[in-house]
Design a protein that fits this description.
By secondary structure, this protein is α+β, with helices and mostly antiparallel strands. It has six helices and 26 strands. The strands form six sheets. Strands 15-16-17-18-22-19-23 form a seven-stranded mixed beta sheet, covered by helices on one side. It has a six-stranded mixed beta sheet with strand order 14-12-10-24-25-26, with no helix packed on it. Helix 2 runs parallel beside helix 3. The termini are far apart.
Length: 413
């Protein structure tokens, strides 16, 4: 990548317009699913805007972009980042858009807005620990172009790592993910590989999630959003490993207030996602392998009290599905009206660190697990209706199904 960087510098010196070529285009949801945020990057300082419309030949709406200069721990990466917030979009509508910086244009991208209300069935791709060396990205691109998915959820650990080679690895990753993330909202949460000595500089600048300022403050790397019949809660597991416990307490108070306010008539499903698991069958080097896990002690009681239905996690480079469990005691070995949250670890999308192997003997709460046979795989989550939710883990090889479950519950207010 260093030779590519030198070539880019030479190109830019010869052609000043190349400084404003929009790159790394990606979407996320805004405050609601009928708001989107469009982001991109340029080499130079450029006056930027997005053009949007219902027809690719008629992009009538123009929205001025916010800009930030990002150079900390980003010596060789693109330093000028641009964000446009588009609000009050029509439901079930195809929109076309392009990023414009000075007189340089991106290609025309498009996205489909979800239906209004909650009587529809959102479908998601969910995965963690996706690096630039992974073979999974082409499969995610193919899945994206099926038109079936409402959003992608990346549950921490990007690129390996975004800040490496002074930002070049992050730039390369954003280029790789653009064919997915420019067409489907790309929802994220931070992992341990984003920490950068607790500064999270690249994560906070490169992504913009609902309900936070931009760049995202270190003390607000969590958010929630309603998507159809689901209330999603994104949390940071990394607050439990910071030198100060202040942000852990801030997040805890936010979680309690957020979950207390959920309307289970409108969003009967509550799904939480964060990077490090509360339980795992991995080696003793992981926090999740210990009964006194920091993440479990910080979150489990809250998720049980507020009847969170499903928790999606990653970090372990394997796949594991748990029976309902609380305080290391397994509950009913059933996914029909489970009285405790169901937990899934899907950290096998592919990193340069390869597979994390399991201990030989499984814990009683471990329902299903794959280590090396799950490498290069990702999750799919279909929320069929208010009572039925389907999960499956897919391999990139022929999209083979590695595991699947239905969670079924009687809707309750």
């Amino acid at each position: 990548m260093s030779s590519d960087f030198q070539n880019n510098l030479q190109l830019i010196s010869q052609f000043p317009a190349a400084q404003c070529k929009p790159q790394h285009v990606h979407l996320s949801f805004g405050t609601s699913v009928h708001d989107v945020t469009i982001m991109w990057a340029t080499h130079g300082l450029c006056n930027s805007k997005a053009k949007l419309g219902k027809f690719p030949w008629k992009l009538e709406q123009e929205i001025q972009a916010e800009n930030v200069f990002f150079n900390k721990r980003n010596k060789h990466g693109l330093k000028h980042l641009h964000r446009v917030k588009v609000q009050h979009l029509l439901p079930e509508t195809m929109y076309y858009y392009m990023a414009v910086s000075n007189e340089s244009y991106s290609r025309i991208f498009y996205f489909q807005t979800p239906p209004a209300g909650n009587k529809w069935s959102p479908d998601f791709l969910m995965f963690g620990d996706l690096g630039i060396h992974s073979n999974t990205t082409p499969s995610l691109i193919n899945e994206a172009f099926s038109g079936n998915y409402t959003a992608l959820f990346h549950v921490g650990d990007f690129a390996y790592d975004l800040h490496h080679q002074n930002g070049l690895v992050g730039d390369y990753f954003m280029e790789l993910i653009e064919p997915v993330a420019a067409f489907i909202p790309y929802m994220t949460c931070p992992g341990n590989h984003e920490s950068e000595r607790e500064s999270f500089e690249h994560y906070r600048h490169r992504f913009s999630m609902p309900g936070s300022d931009w760049p995202t403050p270190v003390h607000k790397m969590w958010y929630s959003i309603d998507i159809g019949p689901v209330h999603f809660v994104s949390y940071s597991s990394e607050v439990f490993f910071a030198s100060s416990g202040r942000n852990a307490e801030l997040q805890k108070r936010w979680l309690v207030n957020n979950l207390r306010g959920v309307n289970r008539e409108r969003t009967p499903w509550v799904i939480a996602f964060g990077h490090r698991p509360m339980y795992c069958s991995g080696s003793r080097g992981s926090d999740c392998a210990y009964p006194n896990s920091r993440v479990r002690r910080g979150l489990e009681d809250i998720f049980v009290e507020f009847q969170v239905d499903l928790i999606i996690q990653a970090h372990e480079h394997n796949y594991e599905r748990l029976w309902p469990v609380y305080n290391w005691e397994v509950g009913p070995k059933s996914y029909i009206n489970p009285p405790l949250p169901v937990q899934i670890i899907t950290g096998a999308a592919g990193s340069i660190e390869r597979t994390d192997k399991f201990l030989r003997n499984a814990n009683e709460w471990s329902a299903f697990r794959l280590d090396k046979d799950a490498f290069n795989s990702y999750g799919r989550l279909l929320v069929k209706n208010a009572s039925h939710l389907y999960w499956e883990q897919r391999s990139i090889y022929n999209h083979a199904k590695l595991d699947s479950i239905w969670i079924i519950k009687d809707p309750k207010v």
